[in-house]
């Protein structure tokens, strides 16, 4: 690291330890505080020149860049380790799965005896509901259950 006359801070980053994209993303993360110029510095290194946008931004610029560089290295490692999972999820999302014909029933996981018992219970509950509501007039003091025609009358004609 060296400071030059025009307040430019130069940093050299080795590409042996990290990818060029990692360095670029870390530099982009601090671009709110400084202008960044990246250029090659040999086969396995790059030179970064930071020109701070303000004097206050120059104080912790290098610390922020180093922190972002470490964070980006972690992100790259996680990204690489999850490659198989991402590929599987994308293939699963894009894979065509044929729908079975409508004549076949899907297996509900119940035995035939359990299905009969469930159908009997549903029929019993439906009959009890019919018995309870048969012959009783439901009170509706606010008129919520009335239809439009009951409330405002039927339409007589259409306006043009």
Give an overview in words.
The mean pLDDT is 84. Helices cover 47% and strands 14% of the residues. The chain starts with a strand and ends in an 8-residue tail after the last helix. The chain has a domain at 2-83: 2-Layer Sandwich (Gyrase A, domain 2). The radius of gyration is 36 Å and the shape is elongated. It is an alpha+beta fold and 160 residues long.
Short summary of the structure?
This protein has helices at residues 20-29, 55-59, 61-81, 83-94, 112-133, 148-152; strands spanning 2-3, 9-14, 34-40, 45-52.
Which secondary structure elements does this structure contain, and how are they paired or packed?
Layout: E1 2-3, E2 9-14, H1 20-29, E3 34-40, E4 45-52, H2 55-59, H3 61-81, H4 83-94, H5 112-133, H6 148-152
Indicate the percent of residues in helices.
40-55%
What is the CATH level 1 assignment of the domain at 2-83? Alpha Beta
Instruction: Please report the distance between the alpha carbons of the first and last residues.
Output: 81 Å
Order of helices and strands: EEHEEHHHHH
- Percentage beta strand: 5-15%
**Annotation field: number of helices:** 6
Which class of secondary structure composition applies to the elements?
Answer: alpha+beta
From the coordinates shown, what is the CATH architecture of the domain at 2-83? 2-Layer Sandwich
Order of strands, widest sheet: 1-2-4-3
* Sheet with the most strands, sense and barrel status: 4 strands, antiparallel
Radius of gyration: 36 Å
Instruction: Indicate the mean pLDDT.
Output: 84
Under CATH, the topology of the domain at 2-83 can be stated as Gyrase A, domain 2
- How many DSSP E strands? 4
**Contiguous runs where pLDDT drops below 50 for at least 5 residues:** none
Q: What would you call the shape?
A: elongated
